[in-house]
Amino acid sequence: MSIQNIWHSSWHLNIHLPAGKATTPGSAVSEKVRTRLEELDDLEEGSQKELLNLTQQDYTHRIEELNQSLKDAWASDQKVKALKIVIQVSFLTVCLPKQFKTRTRVLSVTFSSSFFPENFTPESVNDTAKETCLNWFFKIASIRELIPRFYVEAAILKCNKFLSKTGILECLPRLTSMIRGIGDPLVAVYARAYLCRVGMEVAPHLKESLNKNFFDFLLTFKQIHGDTVQNQLVVQCVEMPLYLTLYSPAIDWILQCISYRAAEVLLTETMERCKKLGNNALLLNSVMSAFRAEFIAARSMDFIGMIKECDESGFPKHLLFRSLGQNLALADPPEGDRLQILNEAWKVITKLKSPQDYINCAEIWVEYTCRHFTKREVNTVLADVIKHMTPDRAFEDAYPQLQSIIQKVITYFHDFSILFSLEKFLPFLDMFQKESVRVEVCKCIMEAFIKHQQEPTRDPVILNALLHVCKTMHDSVK
Predict the structure, then answer these.
(1) Per-residue pLDDT tens over the stretch 384-400
(2) Phi, psi (5° rounding) for residue 65?
(3) Which UniProt keyword terms apply here (predicted)?
(4) Residue 201 confidence class, pLDDT cut points 50, 70, 90
(5) Rounded distance, CA 308 to CA 429, Å?
(6) Where are the domains of the chain?
(7) Which of 371, 447, 374, 434 is nearest to 402 (CA)?
């Protein structure tokens, strides 16, 4: 018996009918279910055959068609047809992870039930409504394929409120375990992301299910390096770095769900589990993106140690340092660690060969440097940026990042005698060769001077630098 059939059988074993509504082979409910089984069997076979003939562009167009068809079917009271369409959407969900959000939104269009009043209880539902609700769960149970059955049941998870007070509490762990039957790790992680999304909507207080989804994912993450996945990547001519990027949106969503209002101890547990996996860079980056900046900043040196031990194949370390720097722009690390953190980060950044990789990372860490250090360190950083971005006029492709660096420097240095005494400040301005960009930068400098320079000045350093800035602005006037 296949995994799908095992889960299908176990689903039936866990169905509980309302009191007084037990069915027999000859009952009306049983007859309805039997009729629907034949219709849905035909649909599943057709849906799988249809996928074989669709190109990537066809998928997007097909989703749009199904979305409208679903709305029309539900509006015209064609409930079984609507279920058929949802099954087709579930099959498409497996194929294009990058459009996962759009397709799961289609799943929720009809089967959402956000209209429950605050004081709603199962006792408020009459027997006819309960039987109708249960009949829908029977229809879902009749879907043979695991993935469509999972997505459709997850989409109507909130409807368990019609049957019992504990329905959702009982279903979430079962659906979490059901995902273990999905053999493809990429398909499985998106299923977990969808379940976490639904769980947050209908029962945000049930954190245990969210945590279980993530930790189950960690246990199976090693499948990525197994023969089955590796052979598929060879057949499809997909490189590992590109393949890994497909996991990021799903992992990010799961972690954002479990980190929402989470205690700091959860980050500690997550970090320990990541260490056991060999500090996978993809996971580490998602962890730093999901948890509160204060938590990350407090453990900056721990994260740096984990980053050092990461395998760079598939996910470069400079992206990890960029994520760490984004957190440190929002929260301060322990004072005694600040210089060591800067040194460790900059040792990696300054070795980057690609000007674009370099400037994307350097831009983030300039703010950290300005925030915690003196003009000496800032001047060193500016010199390094000039060194990397001047050859082959690489600065021409990085004006937005260079403008951002200037903005951050003048945000933290309001004393213009210090700012203009930076040896590399004016040479840095010289990299803005495009007139429109150079004028914008000069305007920012003058606006900051007008705002923060409260007293008249005769400082020759300030006057000489401002003369240079104003001349640039004047020369641009036609």
Answers:
(1) 999 999 999 999 999 99
(2) -65, -45
(3) Endosome, Protein transport, Transport
(4) confident
(5) 34
(6) 1-165, 350-478
(7) 434
The 3-state secondary structure of the chain, one letter per residue: CCHHHHHHHHHHHCCCCCCCCCCCCCCHHHHHHHHHHHHHHHHHHHHHHHHCCCCHHHHHHHHHHHHHHHHHHHHCCCHHHHHHHHHHHHHHHCCCHHHHHHHHHHHHHHHCCCCCCCCCCHHHCCHHHHHHHHHHHHHHHCCCCHHHHHHHHHHCHHHHHHCCCCHHHHHHHHHHHHHHHCCCHHHHHHHHHHHHHHHHHHCCCCHHHHHHHHHHHHHHHHHHHCHHHHHHHHHCCCCHHHHHHCCHHHHHHHHHHHHCCCCHHHHHHHHHHHHHCCCCHHHHHHHHHHCCHHHHHHCHHHHHHHHHCCCCCCCCHHHHHHHHHHHHCCCCCCHHHHHHHHHHHHHHHCCCCCHHHHHHHHHHHHHHHHHHCCHHHHHHHHHHHHHHHCHHHHHHHCHHHHHHHHHHHHHHCCCHHHHCCCCCHHHHHCCCCCHHHHHHHHHHHHHHHHHHCCCCCCCHHHHHHHHHHHHHHHHCCC
Higher pLDDT, 22 or 365: 365
Which tens digit of pLDDT belongs to each residue from 70-104?
788 878 878 778 777 777 777 665 545 555 555 55
pLDDT-based confidence at residue 35 (cuts at 50, 70, 90)? low
Q: Write down how long the chain is.
A: 478
Furthest C-alpha separation in the chain = 100
Instruction: Pick the closest to residue 314 from 261, 247, 245 (CA basis).
Output: 245
- One-letter identity of residue 111: F
Mean of the per-residue pLDDT values of the chain:
81
Question: What pLDDT is stored for residue 373 in this prediction?
Answer: 95
* pLDDT-based confidence at residue 107 (cuts at 50, 70, 90): low
The CA distance from 346 to 362, in Å, is 8
Tokens representing 229 are 């996945």
Burial class of residue 265 (count of CB atoms within 10 Å of its CB; 0-12, 13-18, 19+): exposed
**Percentage of the chain exceeding pLDDT 70:** 80
For 294-353, the pLDDT digits (tens) are 999 999 999 999 998 887 666 788 999 999 999 999 999 999 999 999 999 999 999 999
